[in-house]
Amino acid sequence: MLKEFNKYVNKFDISDEKIMWKVEHSLRVYEKNKKNAEKLGFSKEEVNLAGEIGLLHDIGRFRQLEITDSFSDLEGFDHADFGVKYLFDECNIKKYVKDEKDYEIIKFAIKNHNKYRLPKCTDAEMLKQAKLIRDTDKLDILYMFGKLNVFKVVCDDSLISPKVMDAIKKKKLVNNKDVKTHNDEIAVKFALIFDINNEMFIKEALGYIESYYKIIKGEDKFKDILDIVEEYAKERME
Question: Which of 106, 195, 208, 225 is the most exposed place for a label (fewest CB within 10 A)?
């Protein structure tokens, strides 16, 4: 699977730092999703499946970057949907995963890893893997911003939009459609903690957010948001 993944991504411009960020993110999530599955007591088979989902969850990003040079899913190119198209509609999943019995779980998890919320689903295994990849993906995004600081983000003088602030006050994930300003984009990262499904990962998410808060140099603009996040984390960890 890793060999096929490397073969695929090497078709793209690896000298482009955006491409490399996503290669490295995918490889980290591959490992982290397995480790997180183990922490949650998943069976050996479920841990292996979590690794497959972790490696492939952002497979659609590479074509997205090639076509749009953007990470935005609001420009008519949803990277998760394209990943499903590439893997399943175009029958490329067989190159990566031979066992067909898990295809529907993989498809559901990849398609929904970036959505605002999970759709209603009665299949426990689908939900189990989908919630896990959503958590691991968010944790690594926060790691990239709060520890690696790959994007060198600093706040500016822009306002935080009312809808963005309202979602944070309600301790909800921010809908990307409501993001209008540069500081909205920063605030979205703080709100990722509100969509962490497993309490076990809250402390890790909070640590990255607190580091991110220092990096963005937004003591005045983001102190209230950090307070809300820390209060929420404390409630979840108790």
Answer: 195
The band of 206, judged by pLDDT with boundaries at 50, 70 and 90, is very high
Angle (CA) 134-137-221 rounded to 5° is 100
Are 33 and 136 a contacting pair, CB within 8 Å?
Answer: yes
Residue range 1-151, CATH number: 1.10.3210
Residue 86: partners with Cβ closer than 8 Å, 6 or more residues away = 59, 60, 63, 92
Nearest to 160, CA basis, from 176, 184, 178: 184
Residues carrying CATH 1.10.3210, the chain: 1-151
- Whole-number Å distance between alpha carbons of 99 and 117: 28
User: Is the full-model pTM beyond 0.70?
Assistant: yes
183, 164 contact by CB (below 8 A): no
Q: CB–CB of 138/114 below 8 Å?
A: no
**188: nearest Cα among 176, 177, 197:** 176
Instruction: Report whether 107 contacts 80 (CB < 8 A).
Output: no
Q: What is the pLDDT of residues 165-201, one digit of tens each?
A: 999 999 999 999 999 999 999 999 999 999 999 999 9
